[in-house]
Write a structure and sequence with these properties.
The protein is of the alpha+beta class. Among the domains are: 90 residues, GIY-YIG endonuclease, CATH 3.40.1440; 47 residues. The protein is built from eight helices and three strands; from the N terminus they run E-E-H-E-H-H-H-H-H-H-H. Strands 2-1-3 form a three-stranded antiparallel beta sheet.
């Protein structure tokens, strides 16, 4: 069946908040609601049944879908009810915070070498953060917390299918993990875990 590139709007029926996204699928009326951070929090809190997806446009290509998605998001920039964090629809570093000054300060810290973050080797991270140096050392989650974490980590089958499809489509050259991390709005580590879980190579 032919895959369609759709642009959609998902609205929380309880809060009235909404989210714009793009989705490639053979069935525009599938159960996929979106993967934005705030949207997923809304779905977790109010339930998928209290969110309605409306397909706004079916496009000829992913590029066209991205352009229309970006147009809808940009047109609603500043509306408190809009759950899209970034102006465009591609995800990336700007998802981290809304405060432009904070984003710029972190970028400058990395550029000037005052912050290294993920640039540490695995051995160095272990040295810095393992054992008693880990803030959660000696603590455990309650049964209720573990249940909530487990529920929050359950992935929509449509999202899993889409990620596998996007993984298969991407060219496996240097930097592709980072590109997927930005595309999926998750960390490099989470991308690798997803690949391992679904045996993707």
């Amino acid at each position: 069946m032919k895959k369609l590139h759709t642009v959609y709007k998902t609205t929380c029926l309880i809060t009235g908040r909404y989210y714009y996204g793009k989705h490639t699928t053979v069935n525009p009326d599938d159960s996929y609601l979106g993967s934005g951070k705030i949207l997923l929090q809304s779905v977790t809190k109010y339930g998928a049944e209290n969110h309605n997806k409306e397909v706004l446009k079916i496009c000829e290509s992913k590029e066209e879908a991205f352009n229309f998605e970006e147009m809808y998001i940009s047109a609603n920039k500043g509306d408190d009810k809009c759950m899209n964090i970034r102006e465009g629809g591609e995800g990336g570093f700007d998802h981290t915070w809304n405060d432009p000054k904070r984003i710029e300060a972190v970028r400058r810290a990395f550029k000037e070498g005052r912050a290294t973050g993920w640039q540490h080797t695995d051995e160095r991270r272990t040295e810095l953060f393992s054992g008693e140096k880990n803030g959660f050392h000696g603590k455990t989650h309650t049964k209720e917390s573990r249940k909530k974490i487990g529920e929050a980590q359950k992935m929509d089958p449509e999202l899993i299918e889409r990620r596998i499809e996007e993984f298969n489509d991407i060219e496996k050259k240097w930097g592709y993990i980072g590109k997927l991390a930005r595309q999926w709005n998750i960390s490099h580590t989470q991308v690798r875990r997803f690949m391992k879980q679904y045996e993707l190579e």
